[in-house]
Each structure stands twice: as C-alpha cells, then as structure tokens.
Amino acid sequence: MAVRYGLAVGLATAAACLAVPLAAASSGRLYILVLFLSVFVSAIVGGFGPGMVATLLCAFASAYFIFPPAHSLHIAARADLVAWAHLVSWATVTVALAEWLQLRWRGAGQR
Q1: pLDDT digits (tens, 9 = 90+) for 7-49
Q2: Count of CB atoms within 10 A of residue 23's CB?
Q3: DSSP, res 67
Q4: Contacts of 45 (CB under 8 A, 6+ apart)
Q5: Residue 51 in contact with residue 94, Cβ under 8 Å?
Q6: What is the distance between the alpha carbons of residues 91 and 62, in angstroms, rounded to a whole number?
Q7: d(Cα 105, Cα 80) in Å, to the nearest integer?
Q8: How far apart are the first and last CA of the chain?
Q9: pTM
Q10: For every residue of 18-36, which 3-state class applies, written as one string?
Q11: Where are the domains of the chain?
C-alpha cells in the first residue's frame, strides 16, 4: 500500500518538476498534460487513494509554482483559473473512472 502512495507522490513530484520549466518555455498549456498523465498513471496503478493524492499534489504545484503570481496559491487570471479547474475536475473524474474499472476487473476475475 505504501508503494502505491509513494509512486503517486513520486510521479506527481516528477511531473511538477517537468511542468514548471515547460510552462516557462512554452506559451501553450502542454504542462497540464504532463500533470494529468501523472494522475492518470497513479490512478491506474494505485487506485482511488493514490490517484487523489496525485491530483491534490498536482493541483497545489500548478497553483503555487506555475500560475501567476508565482509562489502563491492565488491564481490571478481568469483563464488560468479555468485551466486549473479543468485540471482538477478532469483528474478527479479520471481517478473515479479508474477506480470503477479496477472494481469491474476484480469482479470479473471472481466470477
């Protein structure tokens, strides 16, 4: 169990470390995909709990390090707030769907 949560923390940290310079170097929002992929892998491998941990860490990292003003949890621009809300909402939906799929796979294996 600790391995699944450790993987989620490690993936979210690695994604944040990759997303911060990516956000500074590009004008697009490719960094959101990097953060989302870490949540996706955490949810598929670890399940609901690790997926939500990765979601919270990526949400915090993007708000604190990427969206201006930097080093603040305040998101000043409305477009950035919408992008952050999309990240958090789609990551949460993905985690819930991954958990549902895992429950279905476990149930199918018991029949």
Answers
A1: 999 999 999 999 999 998 987 788 999 999 999 999 999 999 9
A2: 20
A3: S
A4: 4, 7
A5: yes
A6: 13
A7: 37
A8: 25
A9: 0.90
A10: HHHHHHHHCCCCHHHHHHH
A11: 2-110
